[in-house]
C-alpha cells in the first residue's frame, strides 16, 4: 500500500500541475470577474496536489514531524488566500494563486530535502505574508508620498550594499550577508525593491536625458558595489532592471541596444577580472572535462534532470541531495527529478503567467509611477527565474540566483512576497481609478478590460491621449471617481495630492510618451 501511494502519487501530482498551468494560461486572457470560476478551480488544484505530495512524503519518510509541517504549511496558504481576499476584495486572485502555488512547491520539495530548512522557510513565509497584508493599502493610498522618496530609495539602497561590502560575511567567495541580533539576511534582496522604487519615482514624471543620466549614475553605483562584493548575479539583475525600466519610461529602443552592448562589455571585463567567473564559464562550456571538480554541480544537475522523465521518480525516490547547494541554486533539478518534467514545465508556465499578469497590471495603469513599478517588478521576477533555471539546465553559466518562492532563502522569499504585494497594490489602485470590481457590486456591468460600460463611447487611447481632453469643469461627479473642484478624489482611490497641476495630470494618464 505504501509503495502504491508513492508510485501513483507522481502521476496525480503531474496531471494536477498540468491542469493548473492550463488554467493559468486561460486565466491570463480573462478579466477578474469572468475568471472567478478559474480562480476557484486553481485554488482547489493547489490543495489537492499538496495533499497528495505530502501524503507520499509522509509515507516515504514515516516522520510524524512531516505531518505537522504539512498541516501548518496548508494553514498558512489557506489563511493567506482567505485574509488577502477579505481585506482586498478586488485583489488579482490569479497572482495570489500563483504565489501560493510556488510557495507550496517550495514547502514540499524543501520538506523532502531538509525538514529543518523547510520549517525555517515556512516561518519566514508566514511572517512575510502577515507583513505584506498592509502593503497593498500603503501602495494604493500613499502614491504621492512614495513618489517623493527618490533620494531615500537610492541612499538607503547604497548604504545597505556598502554595509555588506565592509562588514558582511563571506559566503562561497562573495560578501552576501550580515547578521543583526542573531538574524542573518541578504540585503541585496531588499535593495532590489528599493532600486525599482527609485527608478519609478525618478522617471515617472520626466524621462528626459538628464534624468536617465542620473538613473544611470545611481544604477552604476549599485552595480559597482555588488561587483566589489562579488555578488555578480545580483549585479546582473540590477543592471537588467535599470535597462528595461529606462526603456519602459522612454519608449526608446536605443536604450535596449546600448544596454545590450554595455552588458556584453561588462561580462567580458568580469570574465577577465574574476577567477570564479572563469571557473563558472569553464564549467558551463565543458563540465564533463572537470566533472570531479568545477563541473560537479552542473553535471549532477543534468543527471537529475535526465532521470526524472515525464512524471518523475516520485517524491523521496531520487537523489537530489547529491547536488551541492541543491536547496538554493539547483532546486529546479530536484523538482524535475522527483516530480517530473511535466511538473517542471508547468512550474515554468506558472512563472511566465505571473510575469504576464504583472505586465497586464502595468499596462492597465493610468499613473506612470505605478506602471513602472509593476513592470519593473515583473522584470526582476522573470529574469531571476531565467537565471536560476538557465544555470541549472546549462543554458547559461551559473549565477547563484535563487528561484523565487521555491528555493531556500529567507531574504529571497520575504522580498518576493513583498514584491507580489506591491504589484497587487498597483492593481488595486488601477481598479479604484477605473471604477472596477472593488468599488462596485457583482451586478455592475464593469469589466477589467474596459473602464466604462458598453454603452459609453469612452476609450483610454481616444479620450485620454491629449492634455486638451481634460478640463477642470468637465462633467464628472464624485461617484465616477472625479471631483469637479480637485480632479481627484482620495476616497475613490486617487492620488492623495488633489491639487496636482495640469502637467502632472498629463503625465499620469496614457497620453504620456513611453511604454
From TrEMBL:
<protein>
    <submittedName>
        <fullName>FtsW/RodA/SpoVE family cell cycle protein</fullName>
    </submittedName>
</protein>
<keyword id="KW-0472">Membrane</keyword>
<dbReference type="GO" id="GO:0008360">
    <property type="term" value="P:regulation of cell shape"/>
</dbReference>
<dbReference type="GO" id="GO:0051301">
    <property type="term" value="P:cell division"/>
</dbReference>
<feature type="transmembrane region" description="Helical">
    <location>
        <begin position="69"/>
        <end position="88"/>
    </location>
</feature>
<dbReference type="GO" id="GO:0032153">
    <property type="term" value="C:cell division site"/>
</dbReference>
<feature type="transmembrane region" description="Helical">
    <location>
        <begin position="234"/>
        <end position="250"/>
    </location>
</feature>
<feature type="compositionally biased region" description="Acidic residues">
    <location>
        <begin position="436"/>
        <end position="496"/>
    </location>
</feature>
<dbReference type="InterPro" id="IPR001182">
    <property type="entry name" value="FtsW/RodA"/>
</dbReference>
<dbReference type="GO" id="GO:0015648">
    <property type="term" value="F:lipid-linked peptidoglycan transporter activity"/>
</dbReference>
<feature type="transmembrane region" description="Helical">
    <location>
        <begin position="339"/>
        <end position="359"/>
    </location>
</feature>
<feature type="transmembrane region" description="Helical">
    <location>
        <begin position="95"/>
        <end position="113"/>
    </location>
</feature>
<feature type="transmembrane region" description="Helical">
    <location>
        <begin position="190"/>
        <end position="205"/>
    </location>
</feature>
<feature type="transmembrane region" description="Helical">
    <location>
        <begin position="371"/>
        <end position="393"/>
    </location>
</feature>
<feature type="transmembrane region" description="Helical">
    <location>
        <begin position="38"/>
        <end position="57"/>
    </location>
</feature>
<keyword id="KW-0812">Transmembrane</keyword>
<feature type="region of interest" description="Disordered">
    <location>
        <begin position="433"/>
        <end position="515"/>
    </location>
</feature>
<feature type="compositionally biased region" description="Basic residues">
    <location>
        <begin position="503"/>
        <end position="515"/>
    </location>
</feature>
<keyword id="KW-0133">Cell shape</keyword>
<dbReference type="GO" id="GO:0005886">
    <property type="term" value="C:plasma membrane"/>
</dbReference>
<feature type="transmembrane region" description="Helical">
    <location>
        <begin position="6"/>
        <end position="26"/>
    </location>
</feature>
<feature type="transmembrane region" description="Helical">
    <location>
        <begin position="151"/>
        <end position="170"/>
    </location>
</feature>
<feature type="transmembrane region" description="Helical">
    <location>
        <begin position="212"/>
        <end position="228"/>
    </location>
</feature>
<keyword id="KW-1133">Transmembrane helix</keyword>
<dbReference type="Pfam" id="PF01098">
    <property type="entry name" value="FTSW_RODA_SPOVE"/>
</dbReference>
<feature type="transmembrane region" description="Helical">
    <location>
        <begin position="119"/>
        <end position="139"/>
    </location>
</feature>
<feature type="transmembrane region" description="Helical">
    <location>
        <begin position="405"/>
        <end position="423"/>
    </location>
</feature>
